[in-house]
Amino acid sequence: MRRPIPRHILSASVLTVIVLVVTLHLAKVFRSALVPEPIYPGPGVTDVAMLSDWMPALKGTRGDTEVYVLDSGVEGAGMLVLGGTHPNEPSGFLSAVALIESCQPTEGVLYVIPRANNSAFTCTDPQEAAPMRYQIDTPYGERWFRFGSRATNPIDQWPDSEVYIHASSGQQLSGSETRNLNRAYPGREDGTFTEKVAYGITSLIRDKHISITVDLHEASPEYTTVNAIVAHERALDLANITLMMVEDQMKVTVEKSPSNLHGLTHRELGDYTDTLALLMETANASQGRLHGAIDADLVVTGKDKFYARAATYGAVTVPYTDAGISIDERCARHLTCIASFAEMYDGDDGFISLGDIPSYDEIIEGGIGQMLAGPEGQRAALGSIPVLQDPMLQKSPRAIEVSQESGKTVQYLDISGEQVAWDGTWIIEPESQLDGLTMDYGDVGYEKFNHSYPVFVSTRKLLEGTPEEVVEYHIHSDNPGPSVYIVAGIHGDERAAWFAGHLLQRKVTIKSGDLYIIAPANAAGARRRSRYVEGTLDMNRSFPGNLDGNVAEQAAYAIFSRIQEVKPELLLDLHEAIIYKQSRDFLGSTYIFSILDGIEDLYFDMLFATQDGTLCHNEFASTGPGPKGSVNAEVSGRLGIPAITVETFRGFPMERRVYDQLDTVHYVLSYEGMYDEE
């Protein structure tokens, strides 16, 4: 007779089997975290490189990660988007994937690293009970994505030091930041695992001369820096212009990168490379400390009853209701600003256009899934013709015809009543027989300057004896009144601006006050029909100038010093714009300001006058501030003198553009009581 198995042995055996089953299951779950979700490159992707191409020591490690290249084929600037710096901030990663799968740049090159810290995707933060995955609905079914950790997986870098010393600055941080990629920049070739990843990204930026770098993040709703753009000081102008362009869609703040906080992209990439470094923060309830359980639903919907209640007590810094802040809204914020950064960038290395990206409202309404392929890579049929946008009124113009000229395909667009030729990148400026040195009002059909007042005219030469010599005309009335200073043609190829200014020098009189006119302000560039003073030296990025600097800085200094001496009540800066982008040319037919102190009524009355048809040929847009180094921004900011930049559109006939320049000047002089109104 067999002896029965003792109860304790049986129990131990059962428990052992259970432990083995659980262990095998957990091992399977653990290993699943090492499996990346699929990314389906869209038609805009022209190459997929690896970060180890710029940091060979990463090859074969979890620090190596894909670098997606979307080259438009049209020469222009480069832009880098970093997603997944912190993989527990999912809208940054998801926005990067959306760009990879749906963006088709039309100018310049877009680089996207969706998993900047690839290692951190392979684990979650300890003691947070965070989900390992979340799901997004697409038109073709549900897709899954990993939810990772803020820090590098400890199996790739361990142990953490008690104190983390940032290598480049010597700043001491908590040891918990040792594995934080966003405290590791600019990185070290012989540093820690995380520092090597940072070094690889920095090397990529240097090698490819990346003009703009955007790092995508999320923060808790109670955090002070949230729904914000944090910008290196060299990128502040771009951030502020973007803020103005998107403010009708969403509330965004701009913050300057702290100079004493090191290791972050917006500080170190701006300091150690030439890129314009920007970081974006959206509000995510799963990031804070006031939420309930962290699950996939919270990650995607952003709904949390505890945060909604906290908002009623003023404990959060962003609007938060029972509706939450969904991942669709968070991605919409990221993508809208990314598109605007590209649109507003105006550097010497060219432009970048990301093509047809859904708007903020379209992303929220249709979901971020509309920009993603399906779970098996399904996507809509390609090849549809993109909609061309009217740069003046933001309406779709009609493509009239396509013809071959000079070996290039030229499309003719109906823009504000004119047929405008466009070669896909540049507006083709109509030829003109107008002579800017001898023309008269009648040559452009302008009849409003029809009064003659007794005035005294004197001239003064600036930069006398140099190729950059310019002449300032001072038109003085014995009747007291305000003073207005006109600078026309800082860019020598913007001819309608200085044509109008030169005509006014020779012809205009005023009934009161003082009028000063320099035209063309860039005499050397005007002779060559060039934007620049010399080479690629842009005077309108060189103010307030430097007496001992290059020729552009010297020219800017001479004009700025003279304006400072005269102390006019208003500066008029006459310009033109030629770039036409799909859904962009924010400068064509535009009035630009940096400050409005004291000229609010004049500025807005001018805008309304273009809208009701009493001023100029078409409606003008408004934007600001002027870019750093421009006469508008520097005269306004440094001297406190209000400035208005007038931009006409070089796709229109020369006569129309000169007319609109003259009409704007006439309006201002009449408004200030210096000329009789018609």
**SS-derived structural category:** alpha/beta
- The percent range for strand residues is 15-25%
Strand order of the largest sheet: 1-2-4-3-9-12-10-11
The outline comes out as elongated
What is the typical, i.e. mean, pLDDT?
89
| Biggest sheet statistics | 8 strands, mixed
Helix content: 25-40%
User: How large is the count of helical segments?
Assistant: 15
Instruction: State the separation between the terminal residues, measured CA to CA.
Output: 124 Å
Strand segment count: 24
Unreliable stretches (pLDDT < 50, length at least 5) are 381-407, 581-586
3D structure, described in words:
By secondary structure, this protein is α/β, with parallel strands linked by helices. It is built from 15 helices and 24 strands. The protein has helices at residues 7-32, 90-102, 193-207, 236-246, 265-272, 296-301, 305-312, 327-344, 360-366, 495-507, 523-528, 551-566, 600-611, 631-639, 654-671, and strands spanning 47-50, 66-71, 78-82, 109-113, 133-138, 141-146, 163-165, 172-174, 212-219, 228-231, 253-256, 276-283, 399-405, 408-415, 418-422, 427-428, 456-462, 470-476, 483-488, 514-518, 570-577, 590-593, 621-623, 643-649. The protein starts with 6 loop residues before the first helix and ends in a 7-residue tail after the last helix.
